[in-house]
Structures are given as structure tokens and as C-alpha cells.
């Protein structure tokens, strides 16, 4: 009775002991041309993209028998909580650690294409430089301005609903999926454009997170000011891809609307009070 | 003032907390991390963070009880003074995190919620959903970002620590900087620092697959060890009984699955290839229930770990012939499971692709945490009882209040300093707090405590001790240039091996690393024997010989991950030798260290810290000495957790040490 | 950094973006609703019993009454000017903003992403359509009209029918193309308005929760569907209107209200 939903993730029963081909977009460094290399990887039960990349690192030989260098990629926890191993798999952005081969390539000879995220400069192969994402957290003052780290008693009390709401927003691991999938967020190689090019969903949502905290809202005005200019909240095109690709299912579109409301009120307040 | 600099290596909870406290003290901080600090391994912690709180206090709990539990859990191998200071300080840590905006779970009235954790009868664990470590790390990361914007902290992300730079003087050796390599440009350069704080975490990768992140190689600790810092209790490695074996790593599966009624079994027939659901009830071996009719699946954690390990490794009875057993919840109502265990079941579903509500989980013990680490010292505080106390019971008056400075002297420059002056060890890489086993939800506490409390010591050392008279900025540049040259030569030697042609199985660094993991996991984790450890040591030596001829597959001078990994393998091999050596010499069983040939605890001979120092050039470079453990506060007592009372599993269950969920 | 933050350019940016959002609703959107309602009288005018008993006369007559009413409005130029400025502002900024996006429906074929992409496409096509519409029917650029029909506000229905059908005698191939262009253009503009109204609620922060956005989505979809019906009714009405019959009715109306003969002849002036 329960069997129907036993292996619900897989449309097809994966074939054991099969070989899957990885087609990987490679690039030796910034400014270097890109190329695709393909590798055959024997699949064991429970394989994910990371374990396959580890196999390729130990056996860097392409399908044509060409000896090549191990593929470079970024990874950390492998539990989908650090956000490091984000890449574009079969055209769509996601974490590679939680990408199971049994799901993506259940048949002998299936091909999985790995590409670096396209919205960030490539460092090498699948590793991209997401520094811009972290700098945008600076732009929105994504912190609670406490006096210091010395013991001054507890923080502001809050209801379980407030706490749960902030928790949900606070699970953002800065992976960049929402930025990669956003048609309004563009790759900017030149750091001087970062400030005026659309900031994307993740930092907008972080601004909301800290505006919701009792002490954090002291910087609300500064955050909203930063988000009212070019590259801020107004550059959102409401395609709403962000919320669909977010691995943590953060309600990013709600955050965007909430920041929209905040800047609306902020601008009227400023207009009529001069503050 | 501005030219006084502190280097912090590692951007997890310990490193970030230290960076904040030291920057606030007015010193310039250079923070080094192999990853953006927000992606440090601390994100993986789930359960929570322990601290005495008002609710528990009014039920008879106290900071002292927390202290007593931590010592008991750690089988008395921890020096007691730092533990007392940590547990006394714990409530301040929670308050600070609260102010930083950590979304702690709240009660209906809006107070911080608490959950029950192993090793205590009181709710003393503060938590933030099922990702407490992530939330704490983010809170500290945000504060560091603020300080970085203010120019008080310089972050060097994607920089790999290579070596501590020390003065030559062997008796009064002092650390005055580090060498590090940019993992993208591959530039190797030196950094001057009046003090260096190592906050580099654990060494799970030595064991191949562990619950650790892939950056937790232990390489940094090993390099400090090879540079002369002592390493303590290397043999104390915590293995969690239930993890999800993956093709790339092991992911933790909380013990609460068994608490809710999960049953552990394997097919009775060795090599049975049928699907779990096709195996009839009478052909399933519920080995824990059979061997321990009283406790069943709820046997104490170390027994469960040992039984599963023995079954798979020694008897080759694992499911599908692999190192895994079934943890079965399918006999239970799926709705109930979703309500009680939803979070952890989702992890299983996401990573295995199977719904554990309908298909038994496949689990196996996995290396989780290193209680051992770099040896550190401290200055005792003001509390000096005439004789050690016995067991502390709830409601008993605490023999000491919870003021700062009772256990350790606040701000003493040598607190958590290694044997090398100016070189500190904070967090998991510090051996100081957890003895022979760590209690669940104490790890996050020890990391942040180290950073905040002992960060003051670092600042005082820089302001008042040697660096104030002879700052690192004034040392001869030649010392630093020589250190860079040394690292460049090491890297070049590895890179040169590319021209020797492609690696074979013997010289492939990835294969050497894989084999190291297999060997040390089978010999030096759950069940150890003198013979097995010695054989393992020989194998590590053989691997080390192969490593001398290692060949890289990548000569790139840009973002060469193979170079970084291969270099770390060399250091992991050294650390592996130390871990195994410590296990061989500790001829007793204590906490996580279980010797089949010495199954009992031996306080007379081994209530001592294993301290290893590196003597290159000698026959055995790893010189082990045993140092007495500080037991001046509490008298060690047998660590039974009510083990003899096999009939009443329920009442003793909550008395088990929860060792690994945090 | 600090100076840049407080520079007028930055505050300007916010104002412009919000004016862009606002101008799409008021006056453009409001005008669109009125305009479609007026035009659709060519079909629902049959309900106007005051306009006689003949069905065609009711339709043509009602429409003509509406057109005459509008042409008789005081300060009509001011209204037109406001509309033109708003349209120009909304179009130019809209195109500029739309150029900053790179649609990716191929990789992420979510319905919302199609909605986003269609909003841009409908904007581009809408601008072309409005230009054609205004140029041919308001500015009298009859060289862009197949058959060269010049629209007359006194013979509003008949000349419009001829312009859309390609000739006064009925359909030509080019005329069918014009009718189709009207169908596509007006439909896209209605979509553009309905979707714009939906996203404006997010932009201004009226709808925050997913449920609120969904509910407001139903409202906008309902409004859009209604407008779409009006739009299609207008197009069907004019595209199927018989020129001669309509012109006769209009001529009769004007003779009752003493329209000068010169104006009448204007309707036949097909090639200025």
C-alpha cells in the first residue's frame, strides 16, 4: 500500500552499475576561452554530483581518452547548508551536493551538463567569484548594530511568530541561486558597476530580515536609502524566478514586496517630514 | 596601536568570535579562511547550544551542574578549570547571541525556548530550528562584516594557511606571523602578526568520509604541530552511531529516530540482495534488541556504535555487503513521523532520494568530532577548594558561584596559548574542554567561549607581553622571506612532479587520501586494538612512503586545487600517525577511545593528557608524554550512565550523553 | 560613497521609477479602460434604445455620439497632452528599463517568468501599435493606411472600418493585416496593463504575502479579461462594419445636427 510512494523522487528506477557522462564547461581562468570536456563516471548507489567530481579529480581522463587536469569546483559542507557548491546543472542553477545522479541520470549513458554560474566571473572551471554577493550585504548593512560583544543582558524579546519569520529569512546561505535565475540580475565583471546594477533578491530579503529585528531596525533608514537608488528594489522585474529556485524556500518575493512597502512609506515620510 | 596586528586563522564560530573581541580591543585583525567565512563548517551544527538558564535554575539546575555534566560526559579527561569557566560564562554567550539577532526559538510568551539534550535531566539547550550552528555563525559573520566595513578587520577569504612563522629560539619560541597562499592566484606571502590564533576546526577528512565539511582536513593543526606546537589527546575522536553514508560524505541522522521507536536490523543471510521490504520479518536480525533485551535499540550510544561497527566491519554482515545497517521507521504511522521527525527525515529524503517513512534508512557510524587538538595552557582562577567534590546533585548548593574568573583568570595572556608564545588555539582545534567525549550542544559553546573569553587574553598578550616591547613589525624581513621561500619550494616540488608523467594508483594523491581514510577508519575509530593500531601505523608509513613520490595531475599556476589538496594529504598523514600513536599508547578505554584489549578505564595510569610533540629527524618523530589532568574540583567517578540498570531503559535514556548532534 | 548616496541623481531614480509605475495606471490605464469602453459601443451600442430601432444605427450612432462627446470636451488638448506626455514617459523609460533585463524563459520556463517576458514584449509591440494607431487616426498619416483612408471624427465608425478593412469597399489583404495588428496590439496592451497593475501592487508594497499577491492576481486577471472582451468587441465591431451603411447613418446624424457640408465631404477625401 505504501509502496507507491516509496521512491517518490525518481520517475524511473535507476539502473545499477551504469556509466553516466558528465559534460563539463571548463575555463582555465579569467579571460581564458571556455571549452567542454566530457567524462565517463561509473555510478554507485547514492552518487551525487560531488562524488562524481571527486571521481573525475582522481581519474582526469576524458571520454576520448585524453589526459586532462582535475576539474576545479567550489564545495564545503555537502549538506546543502553552506551554499558553496552552487552551479548550473543541465541548464538550471542548484547545489551540486544535493543533486543525486539516480534522479538526474537513471539510464546508462545519460549525460549531465555542469556549467559555472553565469552571473558571476569564473575563477576556474566551475568555481565562480561571488564576492559581489557578500559586498551587497555590506550595502544593505546586513547586521544588528549592537554596542559591542560585552555582556549587557539579553536582546529584545519577540513573539514566536516574529522569531520564526526571521528564522526563515535567516536561513539564506548566500548561494546565489536567486541571482543566477533572475533575468534582471546581470553579470558585472567590473566591481565599480556593482553598486548600480540590480542587487537581486537575497540582499533585499536580508534587508527585510534586519529591519524586522528590534535593534536591527535602527539602521532601517540607511538600508532603505541604499535600496532606493539605482540597482535597488525598483530594478526588480517581478519575474519571481528567485523564489522558485531558492533551495531554502525563502519567501523572497514577499521580502521584495515588504521592502517595496517600506520604501514607499519611507519616501512619503521623507517627502513630508524632510527627514 | 595600529601597527599591532593579530592574525586569526579560520572563520568559524571560534575565529569570528575571537575576531570581534580582539578588534573591539583596538587591535588590527587579519582573518584568514579557505572559504568565505559564512561557509565555514560551523554551519553544519544542528542541535543547539548549552547554558544554564533561569527556568532550569529554578528547577535545581546550575552552572555548576552543567560543569559537572561536561566533566562526566568527557570521562574526566578534561582539565577542570577551563571547563568551569566555560560553563559559568555560558549564559553570557546566549545573551550576546540574542542581542546579535540570532532567531532563537521562542516560547508563546516570547522567551527563549529550551530543549532537552543528552547528558542532562534539565532543559538547558537553546536552539534555532534545526540549524543552530548556521544561525550562530551568521550572527557572528554579520558582526564581523560590520567591523570589516569599519576597517577593523581585514578578511582574507580563499587564503590557505601554510605555516606559522616563529622565532628561532627553541626555549622561548614565539610566533610572529604566518605564511599563506591565495587559493586563486596561488600567490604565497607572509603576514606579520603579534599573535596568531588558530581556529581551524577538526580533522574529519583524515578519516575520509566523516560528517565534516571537505575543508576540515586538520592540515593547519598538523602544520602547527610540525612547526613545534604540541598536540594533545589525538586519539579522542568522536564517532556518532547513526549517520547516512553517502558516496561523498556521511550526514548525521539524529538519535531521536531511535527514541521515537526506530529499529535497527540487518538481513540474517549474509549478502541478501533483496530489497528491505521483500525480506520477511523472521529473516531480519534485530541485533540490538536480541543482544540487549532490556535496552533494545536504545542502548547507550557507544554500545550502539560498537555493535554496528563490529557487525559490518568484522562480520561483514552489512546491508548489500557494505558498511550500513537498516534504521527502520516504516512500521510507524507516517503522519506521526512527519510531526515528530519531519526535519531529519527531509534531510534523508533529499540526499538519499528515498522517503524513510516508507523505506528503512541505511545508516552507519561516522567520525564526527575531534576532542583532541592543539595543546593549550591556562592560568587557574580564584576558586581553590581544599579537596575535590563528589558528584554534584541538582538542588545541592553550588560550591562556587558563577562569577567570571573562578575557573580561569580572565585575561591571563597564556589562556589557551599553545606551548609556542603568541600562538593560540580556539574552538575544535583546541583540546581543552571536552575530555574523552563531547556532550551534544557543548561544541558551539566552547567555540564562542574561546573567542570571546580568551580573545581578551590575546589582546592582553599583544598589549602587555613580548609584542609590546618587540613587535612583529620590527622583525627582520629575512625571517619572513625565508618562510615564503620554504613554502614556495614545497609547492614547487609538488608541481615539478607533474613533469614525471601521469600518476598511477600508487602515486595518485586522491587515491592515497582515500586509502588513508579507509585504513584509519577501520583501525582507529570505534573499536581499537593494539595490534590493529600498530598495523595501521605501518600502513600509514607505507602511504607516507608513497606520498614522497606523489604526482600531481595539474601544473596550473592559477587556482590549482590539486596542489592544495596534495599538500594537505602530506599533513593529514602526519596527523594520522599522531592519532594512531596516541591510541596505541593509551592502554585503557575512556570515553570515545575503546580498546578491546584494555576495556576498562585506568585512572591510575591514564587520567592524563596525551601530549605529542614533533621531533623531526629522530627515529620516531612523535614524542608522547603524559601530563596529569587538573582534577582539583571534582573527584572522578565511574561513568556508567545507569548502565547496570538494564530493565528500566526509559528512565535512563535521558541520562545518556548526547554526544554529537551539535 | 556618502556623497553619491545623497546626490539628486539617486533620489531622482526612485521618483522616476515610481512615476513610471504610476503613469501606467493613471492616466494611461484609466484612459485605456475608458477608450476601450467607448470603442466597444460599436458592438454593445445595440443596447442603446435611445439611438433608434435599427440595430446598426444603434451601434454606429452610439459610437458616433461618444466620439462627438469626447471631441466636445473642454480642454481636450490638455487631456491629450497629458496622455502624450505620460505615454512618452512611460514608453521611453519602459524600454530603457526593459533593456536591463535578459529574459531566460528557456532555462527557467516558469509561468511567472513567461509573464515577465511577455510584459516586456507587450511593451515593445504596444509602443509600435500605439504609434501606428495615433499616427493614422489622430495625426492623419493616411499614407500608412491601406487604401489611404483618412479618419474623420464626424464619420468615426465608417472611416475607422475602412481603415481597418483596407478599403471602403471591404476587406483587402493589407486590411486584414491591419485588423490582425489591431487584434494583437490591443490584446497585448490590455495584458500589459493588467499585469502591470498586478506588479505595481508589489512594487508599491500593497500586496506582500503570497496569498495577497494571488488574490490581487485574480482581481487583475478579472479586470484584464473584461478589458480584453471590450477590446475584442471593438475590433470585431469595426472589422465587420459595412462602410456604406455606417457612413449613411453618420451622414443622417450630422444633417440633423447641421454639420456643415464641408465636413461631410471630408469623409470622402481619401487622398489628401
What is the compact description of this entry?
The complex is a heterotrimer of chains A (275), B (662) and C (272). Chain B has 662 residues and is α+β, with helices and mostly antiparallel strands.
Question: Any overview of this molecule?
Answer:
The complex is a heterotrimer of chains A (275), B (662) and C (272). Chain A is 31% helix and 13% strand. Chain A is an alpha+beta fold. In chain A, the strands form 2 sheets. In chain A, strands 2-1-5-3-4 form a 5-stranded mixed β-sheet, covered by helices on one side. In chain A, strands 6-7 form a two-stranded antiparallel sheet. Chain A is elongated. Residues 1-9 of chain A have low confidence and may be disordered. Chain B has 662 residues and is of the alpha+beta class. Chain B has 3 domains: 5-236 and 371-474, FAD/NAD(P)-binding domain, CATH 3.50.50; 240-366, Flavocytochrome C3, Chain A, domain 1 (Alpha-Beta Complex); 478-613, Methane Monooxygenase Hydroxylase, Chain G, domain 1, CATH 1.20.58.100. Chain B has helices at residues 13-24, 54-57, 63-73, 80-99, 132-149, 219-226, 256-259, 287-291, 301-314, 334-352, 443-464, 466-469, 477-496, 509-523, 530-548, 561-585, 603-606, 649-653, and strands at 5-9, 28-33, 49-50, 114-116, 123-126, 153-157, 159-166, 175-182, 188-192, 195-198, 231-232, 237-245, 250-252, 263-267, 284-285, 325-328, 361-370, 373-374, 423-425, 608-614, 622-628. In chain B, strand 8 and strand 9 (188-192) form a beta hairpin. In chain B, helix 1 runs parallel beside helix 5, helix 1 (13-24) runs parallel beside helix 11 (443-464) and helix 6 (219-226) crosses helix 16 (561-585). Chain B is globular, with a radius of gyration of 24 Å. Chain C is mainly α. In chain C, 73% of the residues lie in helices and 0% in strands. Chain C has 11 helices and no strands. Chain C has helices spanning 2-5, 8-39, 41-44, 55-71, 76-98, 111-137, 156-165, 173-203, 210-239, 243-256, 261-266. In chain C, helix 2 crosses helix 9, helix 5 (76-98) packs antiparallel against helix 6 and helix 7 (156-165) packs antiparallel against helix 10 (243-256). The radius of gyration of chain C is 21 Å and the shape is elongated. Residues 1-5 and 260-272 of chain C have low confidence and may be disordered. At the A-B interface, helix 1, helix 3 and helix 4 of A face helix 1, helix 4, helix 5, helix 10 and helix 14 of B.
Amino acid at each position: 500500500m505504501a509502496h507507491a510512494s516509496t521512491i517518490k523522487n525518481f520517475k524511473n528506477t535507476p539502473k545499477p552499475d551504469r556509466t553516466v557522462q558528465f559534460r563539463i564547461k571548463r575555463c582555465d581562468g579569467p579571460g581564458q576561452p571556455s571549452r567542454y570536456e566530457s567524462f565517463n563516471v561509473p555510478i554507485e548507489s547514492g552518487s551525487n554530483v560531488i562524488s562524481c567530481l571527486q571521481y573525475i579529480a582522481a581519474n582526469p581522463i576524458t571520454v576520448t581518452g585524453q589526459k586532462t587536469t582535475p576539474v576545479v569546483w567550489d564545495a564545503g559542507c555537502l549538506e546543502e547548508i553552506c551554499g558553496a557548491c552552487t552551479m548550473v546543472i543541465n541548464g538550471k542553477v542548484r547545489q551540486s551536493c544535493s543533486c543525486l545522479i539516480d534522479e538526474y541520470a537513471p539510464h546508462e549513458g545519460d549525460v549531465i551538463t555542469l556549467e559555472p554560474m553565469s552571473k558571476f566571473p569564473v575563477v576556474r572551471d566551475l568555481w565562480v567569484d561571488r564576492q559581489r554577493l557578500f559586498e551587497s550585504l555590506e550595502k544593505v548593512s546586513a547586521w544588528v548594530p549592537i554596542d559591542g560583544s560585552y555582556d549587557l543582558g539579553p536582546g529584545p524579546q519577540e513573539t514566536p511568530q516574529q522569531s520564526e519569520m526571521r528564522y526563515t529569512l535567516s536561513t539564506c546561505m548566500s548561494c546565489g541561486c536567486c541571482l543566477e535565475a533572475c533575468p534582471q540580475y546581470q553579470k558585472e565583471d567590473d566591481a565599480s558597476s556593482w553598486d548600480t546594477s540590480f542587487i537581486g533578491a537575497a540582499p533585499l530579503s536580508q534587508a527585510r530580515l534586519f529591519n524586522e529585528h528590534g535593534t536591527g531596525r535602527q539602521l532601517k533608514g540607511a538600508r532603505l536609502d541604499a535600496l532606493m537608488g539605482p540597482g535597488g528594489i525598483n530594478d526588480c522585474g517581478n519575474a519571481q524566478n528567485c523564489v522558485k529556485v531558492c533551495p531554502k524556500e525563502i519567501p523572497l518575493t514577499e521580502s521584495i514586496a515588504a521592502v517595496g512597502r517600506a520604501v514607499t512609506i519611507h519616501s512619503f515620510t521623507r517627502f513630508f517630514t524632510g527627514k | 596601536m595600529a601597527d599591532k596586528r593579530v592574525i586569526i586563522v579560520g572563520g568559524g564560530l571560534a575565529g569570528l568570535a575571537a575576531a570581534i573581541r580582539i578588534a573591539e580591543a583596538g587591535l588590527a585583525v587579519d582573518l584568514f579562511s579557505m572559504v568565505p567565512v559564512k561557509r565555514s563548517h560551523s554551519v553544519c551544527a544542528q542541535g543547539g547550544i548549552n547554558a544554564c538558564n533561569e527556568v532550569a535554575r529554578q528547577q535545581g539546575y546550575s552552572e555548576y551542574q552543567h560543569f559537572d555534566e561536561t566533566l562526566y560526559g568527557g570521562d574526566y579527561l578534561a582539565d577542570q578549570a577551563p571547563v568551569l569557566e566555560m560553563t559559568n560564562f555560558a549564559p553570557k554567550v546566549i545573551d550576546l547571541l540574542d542581542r546579535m539577532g540570532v532567531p532563537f526559538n521562542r516560547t508563546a510568551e516570547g522567551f527563549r525556548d529550551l530543549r532537552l539534550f543528552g547528558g542532562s535531566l534539565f532543559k538547558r539547550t537553546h536552539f534555532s530550528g534545526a540549524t543552530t550552528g548556521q544561525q550562530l555563525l551568521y550572527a557572528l559573520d554579520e558582526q564581523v562584516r560590520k567591523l570589516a566595513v569599519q576597517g577593523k578587520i581585514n578578511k582574507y577569504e580563499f587564503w590557505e594557511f601554510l605555516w606559522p612563522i616563529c622565532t628561532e629560539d627553541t626555549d622561548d619560541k614565539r610566533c610572529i606571523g604566518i605564511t599563506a597562499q591565495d587559493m586563486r592566484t596561488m600567490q604565497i606571502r607572509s603576514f606579520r602578526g603579534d599573535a596568531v590564533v588558530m581556529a581551524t576546526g577538526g580533522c574529519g577528512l583524515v578519516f575520509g568520509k566523516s560528517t565534516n565539511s571537505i575543508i576540515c582536513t586538520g592540515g593547519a593543526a598538523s602544520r602547527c604541530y610540525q612547526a613545534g606546537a604540541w598536540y594533545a589527546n589525538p586519539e579522542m575522536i568522536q564517532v556518532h552511531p547513526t549517520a547516512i553514508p553517502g558516496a561523498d560524505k556521511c550526514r548525521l541522522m539524529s538519535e531521536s529516530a531511535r527514541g521515537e521507536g526506530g529499529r535497527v536490523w540487518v538481513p540474517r543471510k549474509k549478502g541478501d540482495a533483496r530489497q528491505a521490504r521483500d525480506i520477511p520479518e523472521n529473516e531480519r536480525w534485530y541485533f540490538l534488541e536480541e543482544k540487549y533485551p532490556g535496552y533494545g535499540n536504545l542502548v547507550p550510544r557507544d554500545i550502539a556504535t560498537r555493535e554496528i561497527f563490529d557487525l559490518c566491519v568484522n562480520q561483514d554482515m552489512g546491508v548489500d555487503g557494505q558498511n550500513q545497517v537498516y534504521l527502520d521507521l516504516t512500521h510507524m504511522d507516517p503522519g506521526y513521523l512527519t510531526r515528530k521527525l519531519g526535519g531529519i527525515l527531509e534531510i534523508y529524503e533529499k540526499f538519499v532520494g528515498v522517503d524513510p517513512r516508507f523505506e528503512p534508512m541505511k545508516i552507519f557510524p561516522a567520525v564526527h568530532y575531534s576532542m583532541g587538538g592543539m595543546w593549550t595552557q591556562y592560568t587557574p582562577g580564584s576558586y581553590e577548594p581544599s579537596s575535590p567534590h563528589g558528584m554534584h546533585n541538582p538542588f545541592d548548593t553550588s560550591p562556587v558561584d558563577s562569577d567570571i574568573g573562578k575557573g580561569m583568570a580572565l585575561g591571563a595572556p597564556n589562556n589557551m596559548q599553545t606551548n609556542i608564545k603568541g600562538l593560540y588555539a580556539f574552538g575544535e582545534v583546541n583540546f581543552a574542554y571536552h575530555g574523552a567525549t563531547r556532550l551534544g550542544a557543548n561544541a558551539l559553546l566552547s567555540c564562542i567561549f574561546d573567542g570571546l573569553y580568551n580573545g581578551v587574553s590575546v589582546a592582553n598578550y599583544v598589549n602587555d607581553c613580548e609584542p609590546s616591547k618587540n613587535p612583529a613589525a620590527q622583525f627582520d624581513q629575512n625571517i619572513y622571506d625565508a618562510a615564503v621561500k620554504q613554502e614556495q619550494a614545497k609547492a614547487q616540488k609538488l608541481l615539478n612532479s607533474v613533469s614525471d608523467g601521469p600518476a598511477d594508483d600508487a602515486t595518485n594523491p586522491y587515491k592515497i587520501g582515500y586509502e588513508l581514510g579507509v585504513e584509519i577508519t577501520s583501525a582507529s575509530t570505534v573499536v581499537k586494538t593494539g595490534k590493529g593500531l600498530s598495523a595501521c601505523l605501518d600502513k600509514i608509513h607505507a602511504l607516507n612512503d608513497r606520498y614522497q613520490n606523489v604526482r600531481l595531475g595539474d601544473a596550473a599556476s592559477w587556482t590549482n586545487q590539486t596542489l592544495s589538496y596534495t599538500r594537505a594529504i602530506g599533513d593529514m598523514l602526519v596527523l594520522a600517525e599522531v592519532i594512531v600513536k596516541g591510541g596505541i599508547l593509551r592502554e585503557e578505554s575512556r570515553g570515545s577511545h575503546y580498546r578491546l584489549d584494555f576495556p576498562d578505564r585506568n585512572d591510575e595510569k591514564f587520567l592524563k593528557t596525551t601530549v605529542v610533540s614533533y621531533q623531526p629527524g629522530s627515529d620516531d618523530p612523535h614524542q608522547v608524554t603524559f601530563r596529569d589532568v587538573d582534577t582539583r574540583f571534582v573527584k572522578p567517578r565511574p561513568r556508567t550512565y545507569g548502565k547496570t540498570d538494564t530493565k528500566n531503559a526509559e528512565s535512563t535514556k535521558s541520562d545518556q550523553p548526547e554526544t554529537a548532534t551539535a | 560613497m556618502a556623497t553619491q548616496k545623497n546626490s539628486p541623481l539617486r533620489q531622482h531614480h526612485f521618483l522616476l521609477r515610481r512615476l513610471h509605475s504610476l503613469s501606467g495606471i493613471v492616466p494611461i490605464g484609466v484612459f485605456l479602460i475608458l477608450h476601450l469602453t467607448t470603442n466597444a459601443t460599436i458592438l454593445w451600442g445595440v443596447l442603446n434604445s435611445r439611438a433608434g430601432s435599427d440595430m446598426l444605427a444603434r451601434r454606429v450612432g452610439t459610437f458616433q455620439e461618444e466620439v462627438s462627446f469626447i471631441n466636445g470636451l473642454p480642454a481636450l488638448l490638455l487631456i491629450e497632452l497629458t496622455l502624450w506626455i505620460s505615454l512618452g514617459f512611460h514608453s521611453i523609460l519602459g524600454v530603457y528599463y526593459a533593456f536591463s533585463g535578459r529574459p531566460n524563459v528557456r532555462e527557467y520556463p516558469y509561468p511567472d517568468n513567461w509573464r515577465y517576458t511577455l510584459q516586456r514584449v507587450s511593451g515593445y509591440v504596444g509602443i509600435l501599435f500605439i504609434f501606428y494607431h495615433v499616427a493614422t487616426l489622430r495625426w492623419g498619416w493616411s499614407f500608412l493606411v491601406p487604401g489611404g483612408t483618412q479618419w474623420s471624427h464626424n464619420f468615426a465608425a465608417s472611416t475607422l472600418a475602412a481603415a481597418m478593412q483596407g478599403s471602403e469597399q471591404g476587406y483587402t489583404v493589407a486590411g486584414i493585416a491591419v485588423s490582425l495588428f489591431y487584434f494583437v496590439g490591443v490584446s497585448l496592451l490590455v495584458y500589459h496593463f493588467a499585469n502591470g497593475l498586478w506588479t505595481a501592487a508589489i512594487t508599491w508594497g500593497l500586496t506582500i504575502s503570497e496569498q495577497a499577491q494571488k488574490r490581487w492576481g485574480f482581481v487583475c486577471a478579472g479586470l484584464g479579461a473584461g478589458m480584453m472582451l471590450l477590446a475584442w468587441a471593438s475590433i470585431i465591431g469595426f472589422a465587420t462594419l459595412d462602410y456604406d451603411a455606417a457612413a449613411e447613418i453618420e451622414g443622417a446624424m450630422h444633417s440633423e445636427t447641421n454639420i456643415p457640408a464641408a465636413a461631410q465631404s471630408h469623409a470622402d477625401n481619401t487622398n489628401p
